Amino acid sequence: MPRDYARILLTGGTGFVGPYLQEALARAYPRARRFVLARPGEAPASPDWSPLVADIVDAEAVERAIDVAQPDLVAHLAAQASAAQSIHAAEATWRVNFLGSFHLASALARHAPSAVVLFVSTADVYGARLGDGPAREETPTSPLSAYARSKIAAETMLADVLPQTARLIVTRPFNHAGPGQDMRFALPSFAAQIAGIETGRLAPRLDVGDLSVRRDFLDVRDVVDAYARLVGAAPDLPPRSLFNIASGAPRSLSYMLDTLRACATRNFDIVVDPARLRPADIPVAVGDASKLRAATGWAPSHSIDAMLRDLLDHWRAQEARAEIR
Description:
The structure is a single chain. The chain is an alpha/beta fold. It has two domains: 5-174 and 216-243, NAD(P)-binding Rossmann-like Domain (Rossmann fold, 3-Layer(aba) Sandwich), CATH 3.40.50.720; 180-213 and 249-284 and 301-322, UDP-galactose 4-epimerase, domain 1, CATH 3.90.25.10. The chain has ten helices and 14 strands. Strands 3-2-1-4-5-6-11 form a seven-stranded parallel β-sheet, with helices on both faces. A three-stranded mixed β-sheet has the order 12-9-14. Strands 7-10 form a two-stranded parallel sheet. Helix 1 (18-28) links the parallel strand 1 and strand 2. The longest helix has 22 residues, at 90-111. The N and C termini lie far apart (51 Å). This is Epimerase.
C-alpha cells in the first residue's frame, strides 16, 4: 500500500528540479504539512510550501529547521550540481554536497529518526565504468569529478549517520533537462543561445563543446515521477535502497542540437569553444533502470523531442521578458 505522509521537508526546492517536485508532492499528499528549506532571500516556488530559512551548510540553522518541521518524509535535493563547475570549486562542492548532507542526517537522527529520506545522488558516480556498458546499481563506482566524489561520499555517510529506524532511498539519475535548468548545462545553453539568435540579440553563432558524446537524457518530469513513485513505495523497500533513473537509450549532443536547430527560426553557425570541452569526458553514458521499473512500474512518458521544444520555448519567453524590460 502506498505510504502517506503528514509532514514533508524539501531541500533544494528553489533549484531546477525543486519546483517540479514541489508540485508532484503537493499533488500526491495534499493534506500533508509541507516545508521547504530556503536560504535567506529565497522563496518557495509554490505558496503551498512553508519556507524554513536555513543554509544547508549552517549546522545550527538546519538543526532548528528539522526541529520545527519534524518531517516523516525528506526529499534532499540541495546540491552544487555541476560537474564542470566542481573542477574549479571543489571546496564549495564538498561543503554543500557532503557537509550539508551530514548536517541534515545528524539533525534527522535527533529529531526525526523514523523519516523516509530520498537522497538525489547522480549517475556520475559510475564515472569511468560507464564505458563498460549500461550501468546497473551493482556497477562499481569510479567518479571522475569532485561533484561525483562528493555524492558517493554522501551516499555512504547517509547510510551510516541516519539511524536504522530511518528509511534511505538513494537515487542516481542520469542526465535530465527541461524548462528552468540553467545555462551551465549543455541543452539549456543551446536553447538560450538559439533564442538570443532569433531575436537578434546574439550573432548567428552557437558555441558548443564536444557534440559527439552520447548521454542518457530524460525529461525532468519523468525523473520527478520516479522520485514520487519511490517515496510512495517506501513501505515495500528495504531500509537502505538504491535506484538508477535512466531511459536506457543514449542520444548524442549532436542529435539534441539538430533537433533544436530544426525548431529555430534563424540559421546559425556552430563553433566548438575549447572552454566548453570537459577533461576526462566519457564518450557514452547510459543506465539500466530495470530495478526501478520492477519496484514502481515507472517508465518515461515524455518524449525527448517535446522536452527540447519546451526548453526552447522557455528561453524564447525569457528573451521576450528581457525585451519588455
